């Protein structure tokens, strides 16, 4: 095991402040950093020695021997223990769970986000298949803390084995039901979960609490269970490693990876990179970003993806259609550069809203998008030959309604990932042909 690097910002809010110094001995579960405002406690994930305190991280040299025992959080109320354990939204959002659950709902709902919406990721579904009883216990804790009377599991209809496990686990739970989702992106977006489960359309500025609900990710719920039942700090992460790997491009699912483990170590555990590759992504194909083998796993790391190489556009002019459901403009510019294209025009999806300057874009109606012809006309006027889109399933479908007619060749920002893992490309909102049958730029 190489050095563990614990980033001081692994959550929504400000970076945490170290409470250890170089030379300190730490154990699994030793508190190493506390929030200075909105945030969550950070714990050592290994036995070892603090080697260095950097501006943005704590570096720990692990011992050769790694006992299973860990330092436990103090006993308290369920809510106090969730806060003490440093549990955050582990589906990628990173919002402190203790604050989210302190909702004081009025006979409301806990909505369990089991959509695992990013293609290629499977660890949430695997956990449901293997640990459904643990998750159901966690849901009960969340209901009690938040003041919810009912719970709904939002899960894609295609995940039949996981659904069967859930049905068995909740057969005697009258307050719990299952809502089956279509297999389109982004059904896992928080407001989409509320809309699908409760039929309530939230504004881009509204939280699920406005619908008398709290949305919690599957893994987050399991960490709530551990905090309350085992007094266990949150220092482990479930994840999927997939892509151009010597171990095969099927998903490699890992449970309870020590936070701070390097991306490179997880890739090596999966057989190592298979020859030349395009990039390494941390996160999912839509919302992840390029990373390096030295980067550390955090509480919100869901996926590590090694992709095939990018096509070469040979300096052609490219339009970028930035969507709230996909990568930021910076991410799309990065992809365009890696494809050897030149950005000639940038437009936003017509439903992408910036609630305040510099804030991440929000979609008015996630997964339900009208036409994009106006943006395609702009790209054509600006002399673009190609466009790169980062849109949801429905939005991609609407782009394809007009782009080919204007002789604009379309790439989705996820194409290199989809081709790597053998997943249909995001184009039309219907059952697609197999990836290898789809020519590039069509």
From TrEMBL:
GO cellular component: membrane
Highest taxon in the source lineage: Bacteria
Gene Ontology molecular functions: 4 iron, 4 sulfur cluster binding; electron transfer activity; metal ion binding
Stretches assigned to the RnfC Barrel sandwich hybrid domain: 4-57
InterPro entries listed in its UniProt record: Ion_transpt_RnfC/RsxC, Nuo51_FMN-bd, Nuo51_FMN-bd_sf, PR_assoc_PrdC, RnfC_N
Entry keywords, A to Z: 4Fe-4S, Electron transport, Iron, Iron-sulfur, Metal-binding, Repeat, Transport
Residue span(s) of domain NADH-ubiquinone oxidoreductase 51kDa subunit FMN-binding: 82-225
Pfam families, sorted: Complex1_51K, RnfC_N
Keyword Electron transport included in the entry's annotation: yes
SUPFAM superfamilies named in the record: Nqo1 FMN-binding domain-like, Nqo1 middle domain-like
PANTHER family, per the entry: ION-TRANSLOCATING OXIDOREDUCTASE COMPLEX SUBUNIT C
NCBIfam families on file: PR_assoc_PrdC (TIGR04481)
The protein's name in its UniProt record: Proline reductase-associated electron transfer protein PrdC
Organism: Sellimonas intestinalis
């Amino acid at each position: 095991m190489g050095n563990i690097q614990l980033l001081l910002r692994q959550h929504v809010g400000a970076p945490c402040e170290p409470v250890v110094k170089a030379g300190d001995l730490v154990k699994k579960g030793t508190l190493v950093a506390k929030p200075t405002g909105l945030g969550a406690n950070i714990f050592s994930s290994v036995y070892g020695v603090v080697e260095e305190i950097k501006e943005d991280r704590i570096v720990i040299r692990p011992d050769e021997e790694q006992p299973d025992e860990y330092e436990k959080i103090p006993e308290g109320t369920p809510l106090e223990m969730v806060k003490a354990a440093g549990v955050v939204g582990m589906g990628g959002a990173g919002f402190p769970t203790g604050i989210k659950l302190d909702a004081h709902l009025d006979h409301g709902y806990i909505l369990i986000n089991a959509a695992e919406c990013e293609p290629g990721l499977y660890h949430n579904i695997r956990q449901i298949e293997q640990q459904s009883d643990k998750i159901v216990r966690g849901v009960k804790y969340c209901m009690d803390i938040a003041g919810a009377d009912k719970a709904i599991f939002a899960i894609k209809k295609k995940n039949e084995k996981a659904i069967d496990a859930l049905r068995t686990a909740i057969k005697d739970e009258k307050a719990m039901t299952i809502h089956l989702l279509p297999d389109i992106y982004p059904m896992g977006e928080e407001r989409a979960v509320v809309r699908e489960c409760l039929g309530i359309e939230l504004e881009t500025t509204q939280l699920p609490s406005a619908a008398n609900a709290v949305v919690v990710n599957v893994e987050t719920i399991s960490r709530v269970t551990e905090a309350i039942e085992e007094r266990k700090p949150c220092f482990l992460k479930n994840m999927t490693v997939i892509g151009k790997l010597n171990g095969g491009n099927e998903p490699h699912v890992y449970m309870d990876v020590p936070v701070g483990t390097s991306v490179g170590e997880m890739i090596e555990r999966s057989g190592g990179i298979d020859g030349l590759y395009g990039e390494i992504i941390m996160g999912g194909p839509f919302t992840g970003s390029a990373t390096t083998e030295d980067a550390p796993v955090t509480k919100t790391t869901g996926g590590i993806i090694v992709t095939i190489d990018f096509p070469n556009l040979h300096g052609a002019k490219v339009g970028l259609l930035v969507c709230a459901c996909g990568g930021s403009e910076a991410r799309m510019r990065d992809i365009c550069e890696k494809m050897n294209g030149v950005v000639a025009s940038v437009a936003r999806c017509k439903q992408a809203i910036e609630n305040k300057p510099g804030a991440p874009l929000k979609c008015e109606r996630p997964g339900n998008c009208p036409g994009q012809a106006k943006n395609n006309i702009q790209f054509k006027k600006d002399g673009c030959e190609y466009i790169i889109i980062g849109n949801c399933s429905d939005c991609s479908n609407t782009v394809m309604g007009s782009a080919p007619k204007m002789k604009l060749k379309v790439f989705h920002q996820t194409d290199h990932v989809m081709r790597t893992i053998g997943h249909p490309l995001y184009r039309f909102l219907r059952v697609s042909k197999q990836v290898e049958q789809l020519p590039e730029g069509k």
